[in-house]
Design a protein that fits this description.
By secondary structure, the chain is an alpha/beta fold. The chain is about 40% helix and about 25% strand. It has a five-stranded parallel β-sheet with strand order 3-2-1-4-5, sandwiched between helices. The chain starts with a strand and ends with a strand.
Length: about 140
């Protein structure tokens, strides 16, 4: 049983978030803290100048609302939205907040993942706590 669980959430179409959430419910102690995190990749300055000024604020709010809905299904859970590179940001957050378990969803690797690596692979290789990958 775990006391502090991090569940990175990706809203990609091929990612199923139900597995990691079920596993968090199963592995959490009754008083466990569960954090659902979504990492928003940084948008380069040259691209952001073409977007409406309210786009980032509205997108961030929509993501937070979705995380809050998911968190309502898991006891003692909260949603967090952070900006950065997904793999590095997950590891940095884990270093600062000391979860004892990270539960990540993974998709079937394609050629791009074999050449560049995936977020789950990066986290598994570098995390200082247990990592459970759900496929």
């Amino acid at each position: 049983m775990y006391h502090n669980i991090l569940v990175p959430i990706s809203f990609d179409a091929e990612r199923d978030t139900s597995g990691p959430l079920k596993l968090a419910n199963l592995l959490a102690t009754p008083d466990a803290k569960v954090t659902l995190m979504h990492v928003v990749e940084h948008i380069p300055d040259y691209a952001i100048s073409y977007m409406p000024t309210e786009y980032l604020t509205e997108a961030r709010k929509a993501i937070q609302d979705e995380l809050d809905k998911m968190a309502a299904k898991v006891p003692n859970a909260k949603g967090v939205v952070i900006e950065g590179h997904s793999g590095r940001t997950i590891l940095d957050w884990a270093e600062a907040n000391k979860p004892d378990l990270i539960i990540m969803a993974s998709h079937r690797p394609g050629m791009q993942d074999l050449l560049l690596g995936s977020t789950a692979t990066h986290v598994v290789r570098h995390a200082k706590c247990a990592v459970h990958v759900v496929r």
